[in-house]
Write a structure and sequence with these properties.
The complex is a heterodimer of chains A (88) and B (560).
Chain A lengths: L3 H34 L1 H4 L3 E2 L2 E2 H31 L6
Antiparallel strand pairs in A: 1-2
Chain B lengths: L2 H22 L5 H6 L6 H12 L2 H14 L4 H25 L4 H8 L3 H33 L4 H51 L4 H4 L10 H12 L11 H17 L1 H4 L8 H37 L9 H7 L4 E3 L19 E3 L3 H4 L1 H4 L4 H38 L5 H24 L4 H26 L5 H25 L18 H19 L5 H11 L10
Antiparallel strand pairs in B: 1-2
The chains are: A mainly alpha (88), B mainly alpha (560).
Keywords (chain A): Membrane, Transmembrane, Transmembrane helix
InterPro entries (chain A): Na_symporter_ssu
Protein name (chain A): Putative solute:sodium symporter small subunit
Chain lengths: 88, 560
């Protein structure tokens, strides 16, 4: 029977992978999705002087990337504490 | 004061600061030389990473590339920033926990094989050398244009500066110099951008100015679309490249960014795993300031250039045109003899040729800004080129001293290892300088492909080394070699052997050589998984090591 810490580590890793998948989904959506695959459709919508698809390709995706990393930092710091694998 | 005086003054002061910092923070041990002793704060490391990452190409050429490519230029914007998400989420924390000094270190240990390590060293050296030669060339160009010294002297002066602080200071010296260089380069980039944004749209924030209204009441981007369409060009906000190609190039640049050894090694310099995650966030935030400004500079630049030249009389052109004509970066020729300038898509009748580098370098003059701003842009461009060159030289010297010499001579003393690292750095500076002065025709072209090669060789084996415990050395070596050979072969075929076939109908699946790294990466993944499943799994101690790097606790200082 695996010991307690081992099970804990497994669950921590599964939660970590879940977090990664969710964040990478949004990473893909804002850049490859909004900026490339559906750029024509989104360009029909306007955001002030920008066509929305063009805005995502040249501005929006970059802002989203920064936000995604900080969400990741916040979420992982909490997960580390929850599973007691954090550093001092 | 004259432009030249200001330039000498500002470039001179910035150099003095870099050298001062290098002396103050010089490295005493191999740990300090390789990873700055592992004690850099996440904020400082983020700033240093940003300076390391933003090269002469980002600073000087990127905005101009976007000016002429319009929407298609988005590949650089998304590609060179999106890779940081991959780095932060998939690589940085685990490699920091692994706790050694280099990417080949990780590959060698995780795949328990000297062969894998040597393949990784060769990839790292190849990528770094092609990249560093381009930086030295950038240094030379800035010197020759602004300080009016011959390009060879420019390269030699640049070599001496980099030599001084990279060889003396190692990673520790480089890190703190890069923090200063980031401040110089971002200030130099933003000042003209803010002024031009105010002049054109009345909005001081360039990111908003890009979507702002011109004085006459139309939106800048709509006006630009209209002007370009009237002249017969494609609209600025719509693409010319195929969607597949845009997708593949963006992917190759993103994954390549995450696989570049001089960027990865930066995350070894912070004390803890959580600092590695955070500093990737800071790095991208600092990079994003320049990368969201660049598209604004691009649109302002092309609008100003067309507006002040197209259908204008030859003798009424603005003065900056004459200034930059001397450097051959702008060519005006009245082909049809009507006394006016026509800017047209057809090279036969087009009378105005603008080099892409103009958009940033001449922006202070186009906007009629004071002379000190011109000097500032020169200092900023130097900071961008020097910081990247220094980071790359360190990777080269570490690869030689640690990954090559120490692998075959494990008993070597620390003092001797440090000396070899310094000699290797010196040798690399001289070689890079040589290529900067005598660029073989292929260097400039190859730099753009360093990303594809990094994507196709390193990225898959590092990712799988962390996220799979089944991938073994046979798989990793086969994968790396397949990715590298395939990508290199495709590029060499279309760029050097049969350049006349380099058009979309001959490309595989419509993927250009710039984007082929993505396919190389996918092949690498597939071969790696296939070969691993046919050969025995990694030994027990490697399995334990993988378990170990997945949890943050216990990441001490980097060890030997």
């Amino acid at each position: 029977m695996p010991s307690q810490p081992k099970i804990n580590t497994k669950r921590y890793w599964r939660k970590n992978l879940q977090t990664l998948l969710i964040l990478l989904f949004f990473w893909f959506l804002v850049s490859f999705g909004f900026g490339i695959l559906w750029v024509e459709e989104l360009n029909q919508i306007r955001l002030g002087g920008f066509k929305l698809g063009f805005w995502f390709a040249q501005q929006g995706s970059i802002y989203a990337f920064v936000v995604l990393i900080f969400i990741y930092v916040y979420r992982m710091n909490r997960l580390d504490k929850e599973f007691d694998v954090n550093e001092e | 004061m004259e432009i030249l005086t200001w330039t000498y003054l500002l470039v001179g002061v910035s150099f003095a600061i870099y050298i001062g910092i290098a002396i103050w923070t010089r490295a005493g041990s191999t740990k300090e030389f390789y990873v700055a002793g592992g004690g850099v704060s996440p904020l400082a490391n983020g700033m240093a990473t940003a300076a390391d990452w933003m090269s002469a190409a980002s600073f000087i050429s990127m905005a101009g590339l976007i000016s002429f490519a319009g929407y298609d230029g988005s590949v650089y914007l998304m590609g060179w920033t999106g890779g940081y998400v991959l780095l932060a989420l998939l690589l940085a924390p685990y490699l920091r926990k692994f706790g050694k000094f280099t990417v080949p270190d990780f590959v060698g240990d995780r795949y328990y094989s000297k062969t894998a390590k040597i393949v990784a060293v060769i990839c790292a050296l190849f990528i770094s050398f092609t990249y560093v030669a381009g930086q030295m060339r950038g240094v030379g160009i800035v010197f020759s244009r602004y300080l009016e010294v011959p390009i060879e002297w420019g390269v030699v002066i640049g070599m001496c500066i980099v030599f001084f602080y990279a060889v003396l200071g190692g990673m520790k010296g480089i890190t703190y110099t890069q923090v200063a260089q980031y401040c110089v380069l971002i200030f130099a980039y933003m000042v003209p951008a803010i002024f031009i944004s105010m002049q054109l749209t009345g909005n001081p924030i360039p990111q908003l100015g890009l979507g702002g209204e011109l004085e006459e009441g139309t939106y800048l981007l709509d006006k630009l679309d209209g002007v370009l369409a009237d002249l017969g060009f494609a609209e600025y906000t719509s693409g010319r490249k195929s969607m597949t190609d845009i997708f593949m190039i963006t992917l190759a640049l993103m994954v390549g960014t995450a696989g570049l050894p001089h960027v990865i090694v930066r995350f070894f310099t912070v004390p803890r795993v959580k600092d590695a995650r955070l500093s990737a966030g800071y790095a991208l935030a600092f990079i994003a300031i320049l990368y969201t400004t660049a598209p604004a500079v691009a649109a302002f630049g092309i609008y100003n250039a067309i507006n002040s030249t197209s259908e204008k009389r030859m003798d009424e052109l603005p003065t900056w045109i004459a200034t930059w004509q001397k450097t051959d970066l702008i060519q005006v020729e009245d082909k049809n003899g009507d006394g006016k300038v026509q800017y047209l898509p057809d090279p036969e009748t087009n009378e105005l040729n603008i080099d892409r580098d103009i958009m940033v370098l001449a922006s202070p003059e186009i906007a009629k800004l004071p002379n000190w701003v011109v000097g500032l842009v020169a200092a900023g461009a130097m900071a961008a080129a020097l910081s990247t060159a220094a980071g790359l030289l360190l990777v080269i010297s570490t690869s030689v001293s640690r990954d090559l010499v120490k692998t075959y001579n494990p008993g070597i003393s620390e003092k001797k290892e440090l000396r070899i690292a310094r000699i290797a750095a010196a040798g690399a500076v001289i070689l890079a300088g040589y290529f900067g002065v005598n660029p073989p025709g292929f260097v400039a072209q190859v730099v753009a492909f360093a990303f594809g090669l990094a994507a196709a060789s390193f990225f898959p084996v590092i990712i799988m080394g962390i996220f799979s415990s089944r991938i073994n050395k046979e798989g990793a070596i086969a994968g790396m070699l397949t990715g590298l050979v395939f990508t290199l072969g495709y590029i060499i075929y279309f760029k050097f052997i049969s350049p006349e076939l380099n058009t979309s109908e001959h490309w595989w699946f419509g993927i250009s050589p710039e984007g082929i790294g993505s396919l190389g990466m996918i092949l690498n993944f597939l071969i790696c998984i296939l070969v691993s499943s046919l050969t025995p799994p990694p030994p027990q101690d490697v399995q334990e090591m993988i378990e170990e790097i997945r949890i943050p606790r216990g990441a001490g200082k980097p060890t030997h």
